[in-house]
């Protein structure tokens, strides 16, 4: 599976694998090294790469070619002119920076420090050079100088070592490791969701939905979460729903724009043939992944706040809406801590919060109950007495809608203040301006941080107007959907059904974790 990767990136990887004449097994390991799925530590292939380049540089250095330049020569020497003399029955040796290197027909051995030895088969050497080749060719973008700069920095560091050791290697590998993490974030958008995708596809298989439809209604999502719990998942329902929403956002944005599966996908590099079923390709590729490390959160760009975030045709607010919330100022205090957290939890469920008001209500209702169960089970397990009280907190769906409505009103008031200060565009008739001034006086009475002169406050509203409108627009739609849900459903009956359903899940989930007296 290509994880939404640009077909051009797939072609680049395939070109390297082909030019270096990798076997199918070597191609698989090479792809895993790039995607970070080859081991629990995604940086290990980079350690191998630097040690191989250091060893080859030492072995092929000469009076007119320092070791660093010789290493680069080995990287660029796809025909093997420099490496062929090393692959002889009679070993070839060299020493550099306190390390001993020996090459033979079967392997390259690097010895350093207090008895530390690394052995590299020639297949492993080729893969390491392939990874260096990948870095060498990786283009720069607006956030990175490119892989070549990272590779150059690493080579400068490793060949400048007075004594070759793991501490020096650790420092040298930092730049290429940082570049690879950034590359994966940009070009493998679904990689962070590997476990969730696997759970989703396994659930679809187990539930007999052979058409493999990936549209989930609110009840489907609860069923998927229950299924995942039985297969090792530990997330709460609220956290699971947030994660599922993030997966939907990624699939609809970057992956959707790339038609989800590129014409030549990663699995075809290993299988030597294209997959007829993209979903099966996805599962096959997932099965190659080892334990994935946490991907670093992507840096947030400083964006122009003058314009609100756009919406897709289906009304789904783009990913930056949460970043817009984070950009709202802490002084003056547009939102207090509780309000900011509450809005954040609602926005974390986009687009589900817009499309499935019941899922949002369930997430809000079940969270305090599940948190209480988790804490109670820990206390009981630690004291070895008693039993967890699994009685649900009441599911107050009307109350949840009212609380969200109050948050929406808070943003309406902020926008009204901005209009009254002539910092935001809006209906500037006398009644609106008067109401805005009235709201501003109340806010200044309630919040000390608003007790500054109008000119300074207007500048702050003008600066953050775009972010304010972005969050307000997303929240207002959430509020509208909750209101429509309340008008079309029997909330009391729905709450009773949901309490019973979650009670059944929790009784199974926590029973085995509680020590009986």
Automatic annotation (TrEMBL):
This is Uncharacterized protein. It comes from the Bacteria.
